[in-house]
Amino acid sequence: MRQLTYGSVRIGLYETLKEQTKANGIPNSAPVLGLLAGISGFTGAIFGNASDIGNIRMQNDGSLPAHLRRNYRHIFDAWVQIKRQEGWKALTQGLWPNAFRCGMMTSCQLASYDSFRDLLVATTGISSDHAGLQFLASCMAALVATTICSPIDVIKTQLMGSSGATGIIQVIRNLTVSEGIRWIFRGWTPSFARLGPQTVATLVLLEQHKRVFRSLREVNIDKISQ
């Protein structure tokens, strides 16, 4: 559900914005790509926030004492219970930190992927449609995204996992007091283990899909011209 909302919106919007900038003669430099990706991720997070809350709460449920567990059966049950027990506003819990995190993640992930891919093409001379080149560029993008977004992920998880009203500053203060500065990279390895394959699968499949789509469009154009 999260990927159907957040994932589809951010990728679709990013590709659309790139096409619009090209059509208006704006070069897709690294800063421009970063801005476009950031806007796309921020927007996607607004659509996916409710799914994110249910996802995090269900993942964290097993670590809670039995009397504090929410026992959501699925994402729709989670939304119903959250609305009944906490009100509609609870589905926006952590929205702005999440939107900022998703903007940063998308900027680091998609924009850095495009930049790494173009750099590898210029350096090696290999076609940008080559799956191996896309694989390497997506791995590098996952490394950048995981490192930069790790502390934001920790804060987002703390905010969304709580049923009470907790501020960002309070979360940072509590984490620093209990763990020191090490909390910034808490969970980096499992995050990369998740984000690395997810980034590679998403971007390589997206690129191959675009290649097939371009080929089919060219065939249709040729048929129409004939």
TrEMBL record:
Membrane topology of the entry: Multi-pass membrane protein
PROSITE patterns assigned to the protein according to its UniProt record, in alphabetical order: SOLCAR
Cellular-component GO terms for this entry: membrane
Keywords in alphabetical order: Membrane, Mitochondrion, Mitochondrion inner membrane, Repeat, Transmembrane, Transmembrane helix, Transport
InterPro entries: MCP_dom_sf, MCP_transmembrane, Mito_Metabolite_Transporter
Keyword Repeat carried by entry: yes
Solcar repeats: 28-119, 129-212
Primary subcellular site in the record, as a coarse category: membrane
Pfam families according to UniProt: Mito_carr
Localisation: Membrane
Similarity section: Belongs to the mitochondrial carrier (TC 2.A.29) family.
PANTHER family assigned to the protein according to its UniProt record, in alphabetical order: MITOCHONDRIAL DICARBOXYLATE CARRIER-RELATED (PTHR45618)
This protein's name: Mitochondrial dicarboxylate transporter
Organism listed in the record: Penicillium olsonii
